[in-house]
UniProtKB/TrEMBL annotation:
InterPro entries named in the record: Glyas_Bleomycin-R_OHBP_Dase, MeMalonyl-CoA_epimerase, MMCE/EMCE_epimerase, VOC_core
Keyword Metal-binding: yes
PANTHER family: METHYLMALONYL-COA EPIMERASE, METHYLMALONYL-COA EPIMERASE, MITOCHONDRIAL
GO biological process, one term: L-methylmalonyl-CoA metabolic process
Protein name per the record: Methylmalonyl-CoA epimerase
GO molecular function, one term: methylmalonyl-CoA epimerase activity
Family: Belongs to the methylmalonyl-CoA epimerase family.
Top-level taxon of origin: Bacteria
Coiled-coil regions listed in the entry: none
Gene3D superfamilies xrefs: 2,3-Dihydroxybiphenyl 1,2-Dioxygenase, domain 1 (3.10.180.10)
Alphabetically ordered keywords of this record: Metal-binding
Pfam families xrefs: Glyoxalase_4 (PF13669)
Organism: Pedobacter metabolipauper
Length: 133
């Protein structure tokens, strides 16, 4: 894993939360995107080399909607940038981690993504991200 790619935050209302984070961080949202595979709308903020991703459900059965029902708004996941997602997935499986998907899938911000089950990571949902070239 090369670095922290972003921190994902689940929110109920994307527009209101974008306004809040623009005021909080002092920067404007630089990108909004719908991710069909997760039924989620996203908004990205950059502060220096760091990124924050806001996630809002577009379907009541989406993972984000379920998260919001169980835990409310807040930190949803931490994402790590990886050089080769398939190699990293194999390494983690070999280390005994449970992955939530068998193959990488298309995520937001032009990335291939895979999630690591939080039961094996002290309750933290970990996302692997590889930039699509």
């Amino acid at each position: 894993m090369k670095k922290i790619e972003h921190i994902g935050i689940a929110v109920k209302n994307l527009d209101e939360s974008c306004n809040l984070y623009e005021r909080l961080l002092g920067v404007e949202c630089y990108k909004k995107e719908f991710v069909a595979s997760e039924s989620v709308n996203t908004a990205f903020f950059r502060t220096g080399e760091n990124k924050i991703e806001l996630l809002s459900a577009t379907d009541e059965n989406s993972p984000i909607a379920k998260f919001l029902d169980r835990k409310g708004e807040g930190i949803h996941h931490i994402a790590f940038d990886v050089a080769d997602i398939r190699v990293e997935m194999k390494r983690l499986r070999d280390e005994g981690f449970v992955l939530l998907n068998d193959e990488p899938k298309l995520g937001a911000d032009h990335k291939l993504v895979c999630f690591v089950h939080p039961k094996g990571t002290n309750g933290v949902l970990v996302e692997l991200c590889q930039e699509i070239k």
